[in-house]
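Usage example:
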Amino acid sequence: MTATQETSTEPAREIGRDRRRKEDQRLITGRTRWTDNITLPGMLHMAMVRSPFAHATITAIDTTEAAAAPNVVAVYTGKDLDESAGVLINAWPITPDQVTPAHPPLPTDRVSFAGEVVAVVVARSAAEARDAAELVDVDYEELPAALDLKEAAADTVLAHPDLGTNKSALWVFDSQEAGTGGDVEEAIAKARESGVVVEREFRQQRLIPAFMEPRSVVVDPTGEQMTMWSATQIPHIVRFALAATTGVPESKIRVIAPDVGGGFGGKLQVTPEEWMAWWVARQLMKPVKYTETRSESLMAAHHGRDQWQKITLAAEKDGTVTGLKVELLADLGSHVAIVGGGVPVLGAFMFNSIYKFPAYHFACQTVLTNKAWTDAYRGAGRPEATFAIERIMDELALELGREPLELREQNWIRHDEFPFTTVAGLEYDSGNYEEATRKAKESFGYDALRAEQQQRRESGDPVQLGIGISTFTEMCGLAPSRVLGSLDYGAGGWEHASVRMLATGKVEIVTGASAHGQGHETAFSQIVADRLGVPFEDVEVLHGDTQIASKGLDTYGSRSLVVGGEALVKATDKVIEKAKPIAAHLLEADVSDIEFSAGRFSVKGTDQGLAMAEVALATFAAHNLPDGVEPSLDSDATYDPINFNYPHGTHLCAMEVDTETGQVKMRKYTCVDDIGNVINPLIVAGQMHGGLAQGIAQALFEEAVYDDAGTLVSASFVDYLVPTAADLISFDVGHNSTPSLTNTLGTKGVGEAGTIASTPAVVNAVLDAIRQFGVTDITMPCTPERVWRAIQDGTAGAKDPTTGAAAAHFDPATDGAGQSNIADGTEGAGQ
Amino acid sequence: MAESKTTITVSVNGTEHTCQVAPRTLLVDLIRDDLRLTGTHIGCEEGICGACTVTVDGELVKSCLFLAVQADGKDVTTVEGLTPKCGTSRLQESFRGNFALQCGFCTSGMVVAADALLRENPDPSEQEIKEHLVGNLCRCTGYLSIIDAVRAAANQEVTS
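Running the assembly step on the lines above writes:
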């Protein structure tokens, strides 16, 4: 065979093709299986009785009337539960002395947030269960509630009086102690004398993941294995946690995540609702179902973000950064959720971002309050870090009167400096910040927009233009197990895959990743089709059921492709290695002479060969195999990543601000991201667009708001502003690719990039438009009212236009000479 | 004590059904629980998210805010009714072609809402599409691809 012929028989490469998704035929026609669609014979329905109080003693619960209501089968309260109800686990105690409240599925004597379940009603229909839930009479004695994060951190009011403190854990990283950098205090002291110190405090508001499919759970206790269907991102972890806490052997538990309607971290949880469904089904030995209402979802499914961030940046007068100190308060809510305490720790390695800080100190105090518990929300720790660093780089530029992009470039890791070990101790494998920025500036029309901005300022246009920058990076592909172990996380970060060669040449692949909208079936089929040289259509992807995908660590942290995909590559390669001796035997050749290419095993230097399907069939028949070779090509692989990977990008945002009304309008949004090699550009574009929408929504629209009594006021989609089609513009999404060196496919994660990068770009842009009025910060979300007030107060010369935020957190009297008075911040960036 | 029931006759996707429903039964519950047409989803039960969007006598309706008894004598169409016996409709195909869905939970409602728009206005502007779809939330896509899907189904050039 000549080289030319080989090329002509090479099938079109699947990797890199914009394949339409395999998943979509069912989804566009409504032929789906959401958990709430499942109906089983004799199935009962549960409804939850929830606390209206943020903090109260339960003095009595009278269930008599509810129990007597039509078709009610049972009513349970916390006192009815026994050990077999299990507990809700915290898988990541971030310090050995972390203060962790007990977390049974139902409390017995005290509620600690508004929305906590206090009783469960079981009836023959969902409507009857809900009706009867209204009849459960709970007497409460209200207790003072710990609601404000800073006050809670001072232990003014205790969220759990029995614990004696609200302070859960203090997690510290210091570059000098770790040996990864210098002493940040020394850097700050030096900068106070001869450089510049910028000190700001930023607020990360509380957000709600707000997946579209409400959480739902069905438990069937009638088989040898008890089965739970749950709208979850983590069927394998749920199975483990049920076994670990309820006493049911893991081998008797099957957890299925059927079609799952979005998660964004919000379905990375073990929930009271799941645990109660499990326990109630075992009590009654009948199938039970629970589906939450939207209000219940917004109130009691975990929330995200919620931090105060004190940032101190030291630099030389020429703009070279010399130190970064980060002090966080992170609101855990009422309990330490499954990875709740760990979320800010995931950000700990990212505040230094792409910049070459020689000294770094990070300290995070996690704090218990009487609000819904917090945990992962798209980006988990990294959006918080990116926001803070990208905001303060703009502040540094302002202090020094520098162009903010040039200042960033002065400090970032140059493309010829990779691999680069950061001050946080991570080794960044690849990237090219210069090129991504160059492409983004060009596509954005950066210089023209700066000129227009200048012109609008000079003419006193009521509509001012601002340009915001975010040159971000993130760590994704969670995670090397050894790293997780060193951080006291309770599990590993590997992923598992199996490849089954069927007799007819079709291929089943099994992945431990559990998709909920990501398109794994399509992307994984593309990878295997290329690797095995089989048609895309011949590959079937199985997942989300612990009976089929027996091993796995599920989907979160942009890990499915970079960890799960790599496991798949390794399993596929094992199939080829197993097939080679069989092919050699059938071809009567030596195994060392067998080559595999484009789905065909051939004998070097001859035209003899066999297709993968032929070898699969011969293996199935097993009539003529070499001695001692098992009649199977099926292979498994479990892959533990050696490093994270580090997508990055340059995001540029232009915002128009109507200075008379405070209305903000997005004019242009350009991003050039580097996510390494792309398996399916269509899926990547979808992840980018959706991710951007969520990050922009944090900047402009969304906030979980509690009133003074601790009631969530934004407990409906009327009040919690998920953006609509009319709220967003067309994004200009581009790519620059430097393949990752930490996996075979050269891919980097993409699921969280847009969300992580976009929030500071938008806020920086809004600020850039109105800094000229003395505004130094705007608390997110930047609503028209907040923007208008900031302009008014700034114009009036108020020192701190938005309460609490952006204030220098040191006493001005003791400030060093390097710090200018931010109240006089009349210099706009780029002027 | 069982609730009193009312007999209604409703045509769903061209098939006439005579059903006994409680006065408070929502149309979406009739569709999903009694008729087992589970392509229509419940996302918020307060008329905001649009996952339950159907048409009643051709008009768009949030079936979570519509009583089953109100549909008595009327024609209801769900996503199943917009799906040809074999394959998919032009609009559905356009949703797939433009990757206008990720998790797919909002998709049925989006398809029903977009189909109603194109019946009324076969050549909608981008702004008209956006305004028409404000009653349907999607958390995954950022909407651009959905708008493209509707434009492509209307034979318009798409932006991405």
